[in-house]
Amino acid sequence: NAHSGVGKRMSSLRLLLVRHGETIWNQENRWQGQADVPLSESGHAQAQRLARRLLAEGQQIDALYTSDLVRALHTAEILGEALRIKPAREEGWREMDIGRWSGLTTAEVATRYAEEWERLRAGEDLPRGGGETFAQFQNRLVRSVEGLLERHPGQRVMIVSHGGAVRAFLLHCRRLGMNQFRQIEKIGNTGLSEVSIF
């Protein structure tokens, strides 16, 4: 009927986007991509601090989703335990697939893959390290959010994901192009970003 159509168009979603806790590779400034790097001790502590903060603020969370990579999953489990909500794994929230760059520092990538690196810096959207292009990565995240809008209209949903993923989605929200990525501030480990979608 006409009324439900209006309801669908008017539906809203509050997203709480969390970057996972710190890993050893974060400490070493290594590109992680989809490598399954576990949380460091300080990463566990960060997740516990965020959980305490969310409880103290009385945050009402209707659903909790997480990237299936272990650093995000463990962060989500710590938050979920405090909030008494079970995290659902969703591959769509993984970090960008950076292929053979995984485990390297920026300096190593720029040295070993100099031509690819220069073309990317010049604004070409190549598959990073043979993995995903930025457009493929961002489209994957947007599709994941569209799925949440259908499943959780009017609700507050927390997603535990990755620094690059959160920034890529915020870039989309601000209608900025890939070459403006640096306009989105870096997100610290267990940093929290809130987005309202109408």
Give the amount of beta strand, in percent. Answer: 5-15%
| Strand arrangement across the biggest beta sheet | 3-2-4-1-5
Give the number of helices.
8
Uncertain spans: 1-7
Form type: globular
Reading the helices and strands in chain order gives HEHHEHEHHHEHE
Number of strand elements: 5
**Distance between the terminal alpha carbons, to the nearest Å?**
21 Å
Class based on secondary structure composition and strand pairing:
alpha/beta
Radius of gyration, in Å, reads 17 Å
Major sheet: size, sense and barrel closure? 5 strands, mixed
Helix coverage percent of residues? 40-55%
Averaged pLDDT, please?
A: 93
Please, could you describe this protein's structure?
By secondary structure, the protein is α/β, with parallel strands linked by helices. Helix content is about 45%, strand content about 15%. The protein has 8 helices and 5 strands, in the order H-E-H-H-E-H-E-H-H-H-E-H-E. It has a 5-stranded mixed β-sheet. Residues about 1-5 have low confidence and may be disordered.
